[in-house]
Every structure is written in structure tokens, then in C-alpha cells.
Amino acid sequence: MGPNPFIGVIYHWIGGFASATNFIPFRGIKRWSWGIYWLIQGFAAWIVAPVVLAYIFVPNVAGILHAAPSSSIYYALLWGSLWGIGGLTFGLAIRYLGIALGYAIALGLCTAFGTLIPPIYDGSIHTILHETSGQIILAGVALCLVAVAVNGAAGLSKEREITPEEKIEAGESDFSFGKGIAVAIFAGIMSSFFAFGLDAGAPIGKIAKAELLAHHRLDLWQNLPILIVVLWGGFATNFIWSVILIVKNHSIRQFAGEAGHNPMRAGHVSGDTLVDFDPREGSTKGRIAPRTLAANYLFAAMAGVIWYFQFFFYSMGQTKMGKYDFSSWTLHMASIIIFATLWGLALKEWRGTSRRTKTLVALGLFLLVGSTVVVGYGNYLKAMQPVTVQALAAKAG
Q1: Distance of alpha carbon 310 from alpha carbon 159, whole angstroms
Q2: How far, in Å, are 176, 251, 265, 350, 394 from residue 169 at the CA level?
Q3: What whole-number distance in Å separates Cα of residue 345 and Cα of residue 254?
């Protein structure tokens, strides 16, 4: 199957929707601390889901990983562990900035670094700069960054306009633009290392492609084994930090039903409110009722599986983008921000803001959609280039 940038963009949009949606189940978790459910969702997202789905779609996964060069395994793990640090701080960015703004700022920076540094590192940026299709793709990246700046302006405007009560109602009782922007910058830089992990694991993908074709299966799934390795690295960093938090906060008993506090809930917990308490379940006596505890595990695992599907579809979309598949990172990040912005609107995160602020949000969303179209068109031109050359040669003959 050859390149098809249009189909690739669709896959990236589906992946973006999955990523933007994964934080929604967190809001349904009751009386659990952040470190508890972050560890559970990480186990589902970075260990269970990638292994299960790779074994479903790719034959002989263990053999592929065993045959891969040790350097590709090592560097994929290394970049994955550094990306894991970005994932940790990304969760904090969402906490301080909300879903819409947190995604926009952190992932905007992640877009720039993750898209541009790999081709700069391997030297292909020179070819990209001298081809029309490459220039169009870079223009799409630039448009994406402009959209992020517009969203940042909307965030500053929002902080000046909404009241503490409106922040609480929108589930943003910890909203802080200053803290959030600092964390988001760091998270965006560190999260970009995922693109390096995928690039380092390319030899694994080549072996997987050969295995798939030998078994008469679609090469669409060739990158799934790479995800296993990169995500193992990410899980290692998140596991270590989550365990540190759990030990420090003495919250390990929450796994068995001791009550904690979920900062991602859509309301503020204090001594004056009964939010998170259901007297019908008897969970107000210092412990979480069994039914609520089971629901917490379900919501956390659901968030993890939904999160993994972003890269499940990303890996498929990347195979369709042709020679300039580095631009997949821009498409993926832009799609996440688009759907995160829509979720923010649906969850009324912009309630109480002025028309000017809402206009900035709408403009940022429009520019993001435009950036995905521009990047997709640039890839389309590159994919069609060989066909055009052949057609001209045939006509000349």
C-alpha cells in the first residue's frame, strides 16, 4: 500500500480526538489522589494496550523485537523515558491551565520541537527547504505555532476575566496561568522526545513490515512494535515518580479504598461541601465504597486505553504520509489541540469570558484546522511528485 496523505490526515485526526478525550474519565474518579490514578492509567496505556494490540495485528512480535538492532531498542527506550518526564509535567499543565489551554500551549511547543528537530538532526532539512512541498509543510508548522500563540493570548485574557467561582464550576479550581505556562513549556519540550523515540525505532518498523508482508498482512501496522519499546521507557519514568509521590503522601492505602482527593474533579472539595460524597454508598466514613472503588479503577484504565489509541492511529497515519512523514507530528499535535479546544468549549471552560476572548479561541481553532490542511496538502504534493514526473516522461516519449 502506497502513500495516501488524505487518509493519513484522517488517521491523525482520530488519534488527536483520542488524546484530547483521555482526560475526561479522570473527572469521574472520586476521592483518589493524582498519583494513584496516574499510575493505573499509565499501566493500561503504556504496558497493557500496546502489547495486546501489537500481538493482535502483528505476527511474531517477540521475534521482531529480538531481531531488532540493540541500538534501536536502547535509544527508543531512552527517548521514551525522557518523553515520560514530559508526560508527567503535562498532567500538571492540564491541572493548572485546564484542558483547552493546557493542550494548546504544551502541545504547541511539542509540535515545533518534535517536527523540526528530527529532520535537522538527520540533515534532511536541507532537501525540505529546497522543495515546494517541503516549504508548504513548514508553512503549515508555522501556522500551527501562530495558532498556539493566539490560544496563549486567549488564556491570558481568560485569567483576567473569570471569577474563582467560575473556575471551580469548570473544574479549574487550581487554575494558574503563571505556574501553568512554566510547566507547559517544560512539558512541551520534553514531550517532543517521543518523535525521537519513533525515529530511533525505525529499524524495528522495517523488520515488522517485512514480517507483515510475509504473512500477507497490511504494512499499516508496522510501527506498533516500536510503540511497545518507546512506551516502556515512558512507563519507567512515570512509575518511579508515581511511587515517590505515593510513598511521600502515604497514599498507598487508596488502592484498597482509603479516601484521597482528586484535583481533576469538576468541583472543589472542602469541609463545606459534599462533592465526591455519596451517602447512599456509605462512602462518607473515611473509605471509598466498593462500587465507587471499582468505578475508579475502570475510569483510570479507560483513560489509559483511550490515550494509547492516539498513537495507534498515529502509527497508521505516519505510514500514509510518504517521504515527509516527519510532518505527522505536526498533524497529530494540531489535531489534539483542535479536539481539546472543542472539549474545553463543551465543558464550559470559557464561561464568563468576554467576546474578545471567545473570538481568540475561535480564531486559534480555525488556524489549527488550517494548519492540518496545509501540512496535508504539502504531503500530497510530495506523494504525487513521482507520478507527475513519470507522466511527463511518458508524454515526452
Answers
A1: 30
A2: 15, 27, 10, 11, 66
A3: 32
**Residue 322 three-state SS:** coil
Residue 96's Cβ-count burial label (10 Å; 0-12, 13-18, 19+) is: buried
Sorted by where each begins, the domain ranges of the chain are 5-396
In sequence order, which ranges of the chain are alpha helices (DSSP H)? 5-21, 34-43, 49-57, 61-67, 70-122, 125-129, 132-161, 164-169, 177-191, 193-200, 202-214, 224-249, 290-318, 328-346, 355-396
Residue with cell 494558574: 176
pLDDT in tens, 61-101: 999 999 999 999 999 999 999 988 887 787 777 777 776 66
Model pTM? 0.73
Each residue's pLDDT tens digit, 205-260: 999 999 999 999 888 889 999 999 999 999 999 899 889 989 988 889 888 888 87
